[in-house]
Design brief:
Elements: H1 3-7, H2 14-24, H3 47-63, E1 67-68, H4 70-74, E2 80-81, H5 95-108, E3 116-119, H6 122-131, E4 137-141, E5 153-155, E6 174-177, H7 184-197, E7 204-210, H8 214-221, E8 224-225, E9 240-244
Parallel strand pairs: 3-4, 3-6, 4-5, 6-7
Antiparallel strand pairs: 1-2, 7-9, 8-9
Helix pairs in contact: 5-6, 7-8
């Protein structure tokens, strides 16, 4: 009997289940390094057992609706994200993307009375609060699991782009949006929401979406792509870009120069 199965009967099948999951994710299978043969050495778990234990703990978190960012777990940091719901087209940013965009928003937040709206980008909301828990930020999101954020949460359905509380109208100097779908129709409706939320003529706009939306983003909102390339933890195949309505200078890789 393995050490895992001594903890719980469900552990016994975990190595094989983990192997299947890793094959689906195109990761190499864990190598079984075995247990040291020298009786004088302290007992060691094999890499397969350690991987199974890590996956079990992750599954425990997911059963509670919480999923830690794997990049941060390895560094001992606690940035807990609810599990992605692919049926809602949810794909969380990787750590570098989340921190890069969050730090850009914080740079734009000067003076300190700036208010931020995050449309369908809960990962960014989480990182903004991690970096500055005093930041005034509103999360507009369809997934009601994020009601846990209290008054920072506003239910949002992009199919009803302006069905929002009146106090949100033209209240934000920084608006960041990540439309859930890569369709022109979705971006058009999200653009209506951005117009509803932003302060006319004086708001910073950041849009994270597929490169296929480049022309539509320019047409609807006058946005241009930056050199920085957003990435997701799920390693999506679609090429994503970050678009802004302002010149970021040397930040975010600058505006891409058109040929």
């Amino acid at each position: 009997m393995s050490l895992l199965s001594e903890f719980s009967p469900s552990f016994a099948a975990l190595p094989q289940e983990l192997k299947k999951m890793e094959e689906l994710r195109d990761h190499p299978n864990p190598q079984n390094d075995g247990v040291a043969a020298d009786d004088d050495d302290p007992p060691m778990l094999s890499s397969e057992t350690l991987s199974a234990l890590k996956e079990f703990l992750a599954q425990q978190n997911r059963s509670l609706g919480v999923e830690p960012d794997p990049d941060n777990v390895e560094n001992g940091e606690e940035v807990a994200l609810v599990a992605e719901d692919w049926k809602l087209s949810q794909f969380w940013y990787d750590r570098e993307t989340a921190e890069t965009v969050a730090r850009e928003v914080l740079t734009l937040c000067q003076p300190s009375d700036s208010r931020v709206a995050c449309i369908a980008c809960p990962t960014l909301y989480t990182y903004l609060k991690k970096l500055d828990h005093n930041i005034a930020v509103q999360l507009l999101e369809y997934d009601k699991r994020f009601e846990q954020h209290g008054s920072d949460f506003t239910f949002y359905d992009y199919n009803r782009p302006e069905e929002l509380p009146s106090e949100l109208k033209h209240a934000y100097s920084i608006v960041v949006a990540d439309p859930p779908y890569l369709s022109k129709e979705c971006l058009e409706k999200v653009a209506q929401t951005i117009s509803f939320l932003s302060r006319p003529q004086e708001s910073y706009l950041l849009l994270l979406t597929g490169e296929v939306q480049k022309d539509t983003a320019a047409e609807l909102m006058g946005l241009r792509p930056c050199g920085f390339r957003p990435r997701h933890s799920s390693k999506l195949g679609n090429e994503f870009r970050l678009f802004t309505n302002y010149d970021p200078g040397n930040r975010l890789g600058g505006w891409v120069q058109e040929d």
